[in-house]
Specification:
Helix content: over 70%
Strand content: under 5%
Shape: globular
Largest sheet: none
Structural class: mainly alpha
Number of helices: 9
Length: 187
């Protein structure tokens, strides 16, 4: 139990660093609930983590009935990662990298954070948790499922960020998928 708690804090900190240090300064998107939270943050200027918590309620109701163990580890990981994203918002002006380089680095850091949590059967919750459930019933790897979900979310953000940032955001989700897959050790 202590190991899972430590993994959630480490993974969530990495996700918060990746989002705030590398994506938000360029208005880039990630997928999943983070991506949805970023879209709403860019459009309405509301905190990303708080938005993620609010829009995740229906998913957690489903998970509660599906698998209570996933619910408890997912909700813990989700709340901590959402808080880390908002707590680490001071990093938004810390790095001055190009948009493309930021998309590489941000995707790598977020992917490592998510991958570490999934490796220890915890997650940031949200669509990662949904992907974990789908992977249990299919032959698809969880990283591929996350990539597909993330792609749909990116496409929905075109009106908010535009095509140039969508391309860099696509690089981000590719790197998230690659590093999630590498960290889970299931290729």
């Amino acid at each position: 139990m202590a190991e899972k708690i430590a993994v959630v804090f480490i993974g969530s900190m990495l996700v918060g660093i990746g989002v705030n240090g590398f994506l938000v300064p360029h208005h880039l998107l990630d997928g999943g609930l983070i991506g949805i939270g970023l879209i709403l943050h860019y459009h309405y200027d509301i905190p990303t983590g708080m938005t993620m918590i609010i829009i995740s309620v229906p998913l957690y109701l489903f998970v509660w009935f599906y698998n209570k163990q996933y619910f408890f580890y997912g909700i813990f990981g989700f709340v901590i990662s959402s808080l880390m994203i908002d707590l680490l918002s001071f990093l938004r002006d810390s790095f001055s990298l190009s948009m493309l380089f930021s998309s590489f680095i941000g995707g790598m850091i977020i992917g490592i954070g998510i991958g570490i949590m999934l490796r220890f059967e915890t997650s940031t919750g949200g669509t990662d948790l949904l992907a974990q459930i789908i992977a249990n019933y299919s032959t698809l790897h969880v990283g591929i499922i996350i990539f597909i979900i993330d792609g749909f979310i990116l496409l929905s953000g075109i009106p908010i960020v535009g095509l140039d940032k969508l391309a860099a955001s696509f690089v981000t989700i590719v790197f998230v998928a690659i590093f999630t897959t590498l960290m889970t050790g299931k290729i």
